[in-house]
């Protein structure tokens, strides 16, 4: 059974989260600088069985595209080109960064650790993935 890999694409950093093989638990995986995010995915897919990509789609409060929507869709097209056999699903990512910050506070993470932007990115990816799991399993 394959895992689901979630991606919180950003212009500077990209966060990743993954399910367990049974697709029960969404866990933060890592972050990578966006310029090497595709290589991160290639390396991960080479060592793990990935059956789906879930990508957070940035949309505004009005439901319209934002400045980050186009780069995210462009990255998704590159994923489809590099991994044509792995389906891709977009999930609305509104409020995931705020939810990630709130979960870090609730979890007792120290303020200096909460300031590490990569932590927000990978927790946001886990929230995106959990949203997908809640809707589909």
Helical percent range? 40-55%
Kindly give the count of domains: 1
Task: Just give the CATH class.
Answer: Alpha Beta
The number of helical elements comes to: 5
EC number: 3.1.-.-
GO molecular function, one term: hydrolase activity, acting on ester bonds
InterPro entries: RNaseH-like_sf, YqgF, YqgF/RNaseH-like_dom, YqgF/RNaseH-like_dom_sf
Domain YqgF/RNase H-like: 2-100
Describe this structure in words.
With 137 residues, the protein is α/β, with parallel strands linked by helices. It has a single domain, classed as YqgF/RNase H-like domain (Nucleotidyltransferase, domain 5), CATH 3.30.420.140. It is built from 5 helices and 5 strands, in the order βββαβαβααα. Strands 3-2-1-4-5 form a 5-stranded mixed sheet, sandwiched between helices. Helix 3 (96-106) packs across helix 5. The chain starts with a strand and ends with a helix. The model has no long low-confidence stretch (mean pLDDT 88). Residues 2-100 form the YqgF/RNase H-like domain. GO terms for molecular function: hydrolase activity, acting on ester bonds; nuclease activity. It is found in: Cytoplasm.
Question: Could you give the topology of this structure?
Answer:
Blueprint: E1 3-8, E2 13-19, E3 26-33, H1 37-47, E4 50-57, H2 69-82, E5 88-92, H3 96-106, H4 111-114, H5 117-136
Parallel strand pairs: 1-4, 4-5
Antiparallel strand pairs: 1-2, 2-3
Function: Could be a nuclease involved in processing of the 5'-end of pre-16S rRNA.
Keywords: Cytoplasm, Hydrolase, Nuclease, Ribosome biogenesis
Organism: Flammeovirga pectinis
